[in-house]
Amino acid sequence: MLIHIKYWIFLIVLLGSSLLFAQPEKVKNYRKFDNRLLHFGFTLGFNSADFSTYPVTGAYELYGVTAIENKSQPGGQVGILTTMKLGHPVARLRFIPTLSFQERVLTYYYLNPSPNPGKKLEITNEERLNSVNIDLPLMLQFRTTRYNNFAAYALVGAQYSVDLQSQEKVTQSYNNPFIKIKKHDYQGQVGGGVEFFLPYFKLGLELKYSQSFGNVMVQDESPVSLPLDRLYNRVWWFSLIFEG
């Protein structure tokens, strides 16, 4: 469902861009926006978080795991925005300290021998991982020159995240084992968006993708971590950006 939403957002942005560029020239709102060095604002949005999952080789032979399914889950975020012009209005540096709420689900599938000869039963185990993150993304923004009261842009950068809910140092429970995720993570980010210049502020619609550079799983040899070799955080972000 969330994947379909991402595609619809992308199509709406493309359609909106083509329609806006087809409009005749209008009076520009917020004419002096590009003259200022710094701009401030805030962001609100939702995210879809999951993992890039890599099971160990021979997980079935070693641990009886036939498959590990990764399911994305919805979350949300709120952030404070600072944008700095880099000599020219089309190139900007953007810093957005953000508080985000994320959830991911891993489902383990096992084959359990049935008492009936020649028949096997499949059993599952679900691991739900929640995170409350402080995200510190630093992005380069490359914007088109504004047309009337519209512009589009691309983003590239990196992000440092601290998981305030991480259980990395918590003692493992072997009666009810859980997956430990590292507290600190570094991610690359790419994305893009569109901007609408209104009379007193600028409204942006932004879609971006982030992916961990390194493995975020702590291998503590618990029953749920042994079948896994590596986990990488990945997140789709959609944000409304209000900038003045």
Number of helices: 2
Shape: elongated
Helix percentage range: 10-25%
Structural class: mainly beta
CATH fold name, please?
Answer: Porin
Number of domains: 1
Order of secondary-structure elements? HEHEEEEEEEEEE
Would you state the CATH class? Mainly Beta
What is the overall pLDDT average?
Answer: 87
How much is the radius of gyration in Å? 22 Å
Give keywords.
244 residues, mainly beta, Porin, nine-stranded antiparallel sheet, two-stranded antiparallel sheet, elongated, disordered N terminus
How would you describe the overall organization of this protein?
With about 240 residues, the chain is mainly beta. The chain has a single domain (about 1-20, about 35-244), classed as Porin (Beta Barrel). The chain is about 10% helix and about 60% strand. It contains 2 helices and 11 strands; from the N terminus they run αβαββββββββββ. The protein has helices spanning about 1-20, 60-65; strands at about 40-55, 65-85, 90-95, 100-115, 120-145, 150-165, 180, 185-195, 200-210, 215-220, 230-244. Strands 1, 2, 3, 4, 5, 6, 8, 9 and 11 form a 9-stranded antiparallel β-sheet that branches. The longest helix is centred in the N-terminal third of the chain and has 20 residues, at about 1-20. The relative contact order is 0.21.
